[in-house]
Amino acid sequence: MVDDDALLTDSLAFLLRQEGYDVSVADTAGAALDLARAAPPDLILLDVGLPDLNGVEACRRLRAFWAGPVIMLTARRRETDTVIGLDAGADDYVVKPFAQSELLARIRAGLRRAHTSGTGGTGPTPRGEVVVGELRMDRDARTLLVRDRAVHLSAREFDLLQLLLERPDVVLTRRYLFDTIWGADFFGDARALDVYIRALRKKIEPDPDAPSYIQTVRGVGYRLVSPDEA
């Protein structure tokens, strides 16, 4: 999140962390570019009016090395401003003041599009492998090895496990998992998530009844940890 309004960033950071997101804050474009290079994020909220560099130019510079979703935040309402921001490489544009629910919906949509298209924070480089404990996932080939044994996953099981593997030790809320995997307009049985978690545990856990990888955080959601770290 890139904005020099401390009141806004403090309140939004609190909200996003409550939703299960890991948030880094920068108050200048220069600091944001340094952060994005050092630890490519999943999504960037970028204010247009920054003290050192216009947010539109900052977005152009970001696009030179990072391809993830950018949501521009601005107090400007002119259609030409929106077009300029989108032409610079922004994926979405939210005008201040905005409802928190609207911003959260835009964030979920941006992450969902990036997840579906396979656009990672480092742009055109392959997503490659992710390894946690004895789990080795190849995100390009969509394969999984568990203790060096190939394990078949359905498409939805794979997507769910990938979300967990890519953010080890982070609690992902039920709402975030539903919106990302099923879509924000899903109105089916809320127990569907638990069914898929149980199926995954049967396939990856040494003892599914005493899971060591996928842990339940009661009343919130799930997190994945390495058994060595638990």
* Total domain modules: 2
Biggest sheet strand line-up: 4-5-6-7
User: Structural class of the helix and strand makeup?
Assistant: alpha+beta
Biggest β-sheet: count, sense, barrel?
4 strands, antiparallel
Share of β-strand residues: 15-25%
CA-based shape: elongated
For the record, what CATH class of the largest domain applies?
A: Alpha Beta
Distance between the termini: 30 Å
Q: Please, how many helices?
A: 8
Mean pLDDT, to the nearest integer, reads: 83
String of helices and strands: HHEHEHEHEEEEHEHHEE
Count the beta strands. Answer: 10
CATH architectural group of the largest domain = 3-Layer(aba) Sandwich
Features:
single chain, 16% strand, 8 helices, Arc Repressor Mutant, subunit A, elongated, 2 domains, alpha+beta, 230 residues, four-stranded antiparallel sheet, three-stranded parallel sheet, 10 strands, Rossmann fold
Task: Give a description of the structure.
This protein has 2 domains: 6-117, Response regulator (Rossmann fold); 129-224, Orthogonal Bundle (Arc Repressor Mutant, subunit A), CATH 1.10.10. It is built from 8 helices and 10 strands. It has helices at 6-18, 29-38, 55-62, 79-87, 100-117, 155-166, 174-181, 192-204, and strands spanning 44-47, 70-74, 92-95, 129-132, 135-138, 143-146, 149-150, 172-173, 214-217, 221-224. The strands form 3 sheets. The chain has a 4-stranded antiparallel β-sheet with strand order 4-5-6-7, covered by helices on one side. Strands 1-2-3 form a 3-stranded parallel β-sheet, with helices on both faces. It has a 3-stranded antiparallel β-sheet with strand order 8-10-9. Strand 5 (135-138) and strand 6 (143-146) form a beta hairpin. The longest helix is centred in the middle third of the chain and has 18 residues, at 100-117. The protein is elongated and about 55 Å long. It starts with 5 loop residues before the first helix and ends in a 6-residue tail after the last strand.
